[in-house]
Here is the input.
Amino acid sequence: MHPRRSPRSAACSSTGGARLCALLLLVACGADGKHVEDAFAGLASADADGDGWPADEDCDDHDGLVRPDALEACDGVDNDCDGQIDEDVQQLLYLDADGDGFGGGAPQPACALRAGLAATDTDCDDRDPGAFPGAAEVCDGDDEDCDGEVDEGTLSVFYADRDGDGYGDARAAVAACAPGAAEVAVAGDCDDGAPGVSPGADELCNGLDDDCDGVVDEDDAVDAPTWYRDTDADGYGGAASALRACLAPLGYAPTGDDCDDLRAESHPAGVEICNLYDDNCDGEVDEWAWGEDFSTTPAGLELNGAAALVDGALRLTPTSGGVGTALWAAPIPGARFRVRFSFWIGGTGGGGGDGLAFLFLDSDDPTLLGAGSSQLGYGGLPGYAAEADTYGNSGWDPGGNHVALMDTDSLRRFSGNADIPELEDSGWHTMEVEHIAPDVRVWLDGALVLDDNIYGYPSERFLVGFSAATGTRRNEHRVDEVWFDCP
Here is the structure.
C-alpha cells in the first residue's frame, strides 16, 4: 500500500483533480471559509471511476484500472499511482542498428521488441546486416558468424601455375578466398615449367610423362603407332593381331598387310613367282610374267661372244660363225615357270650349223657362259638346256635336226626327238618350255615334242638365257619375242 495522501493533495494529483482544485479555489475565494471546508470534505470521499479508491487517493479517478493497488503494466501509465511509470516491468533491449535481429549497442529499457531493438547484444558488427551469430561465414576477410574467427571453413587451396597450362604444382599451395595471379585450383602438374605437360595433356611418344600419370610413353599415347604380330619374321605383320605402343614390341612389325604370316616369302614386298602362292600379297596367285621383244636393250641382259642386238632381234651368231650367248643377270624362280620364244637358224654354210638352246643354269655369273664352243657354248656349266639343233654330236644328241634336253655340265642327254620339222633355213619357229620341277615339257611350233623328268637341279632359282654356236658352219642364229609366265 502506498502512504495515504491528504485529500487535497490526492484530489489535485490528477488532471481531473487539478480542475476541481481550481473550482474549489474559486468557491473559496467567493465564499466564507466554512463552506470551503465542507466542500473539501465531500470531494475526499468521491470515487468517480468506481474502483474502490476515493479520488483523493486514486491518481486517475476516471480510469478504473489505475488505482494504488493495481499492478504496474508496461503501457506508459502510472498504473499503481506511485508516481512512476512502467517501473519494474520494462526489459533491457539493445539497439539493432543494422536490422539483422541482433543488437550491438547500449542497453535500453523498453516494454517489448520493436524495430531497431534486439533481445541480445551479440552482434559483432552492428553496421553489417550480414554479420551476426549463426550467419553463414563468407570468404571475404570478415567475421560474419561472430565467432571471433575470420573466413574459417571457407578458404580454398590454390596452386602456383607457372607455365599457364591450368594445372598447378602441389608443392606450391596457398589457402585463400580466390586465386591470385598465376594460381589455379587444380594441382597435379608434374612439370610446372612445361606447358605441354599436365594431367590434362595427351601422352605422346616423346620420352616424357606428358599426362603426369607416372608412366612415360605408355601404349595409349595419341601418336603411338600400331604394331602387328609378325609370326614369320618377314618384317610384315598380320592384321588380326595388332596393338599400339610407342616402341616396337618383340616379334611385331609396323605393317599389318602380310597376307600369309606363316610364310616368310609372302609379304607386300615379296617377289611373285610361280609357286601357287600369293607371294606379293596383291590378291593374285602366280601372276608373274614378263617379256622382251628386243626393240631396245633389255635391262640386265648380259651379251657375250658373238651375241648382239640386230634389226630388233637378238642375234646370237652371225653367218661368220662363232659362239654367242645372252643371259639375264638376275635369276628367276626355278620351281615353276614357262618360257616361249621365236627362233631362226639359217645361213649359207649348209650341212647343219649346230643350233641354239634355252638355258637353265645354276650359276651366279652369267659372263662364264660361252667360254668354249663345245655343245653350243654351255659345256661345263651346271644346269640343263632345251636345245634346237641341226647337227648331231656323236654320243651327245641325235643326228641332224632334233630337239633335246641336255645336262649342260656333263653334256649328258636326258631325252631327244628327231621327228621334227626342218630347222635350218626354214624360217621362224616357236619353242615353249614348261618347267614344273622335276618335270620338263617342250613344244615346237605348238606340238609337244619332249616330256621328261629331270632331277638334281635347283628348285629355287635359275639364271636363264640363250646360247648358240656354228661350229665350222656359217649359220646365223636369232631369237625374238621372249615371254616368261607361270604354267
User: Anything to note?
Assistant: Residues 218-265 form one domain. Residues 1-31 have pLDDT under 50 and may be disordered. The chain is about 5% helix and 30% strand.
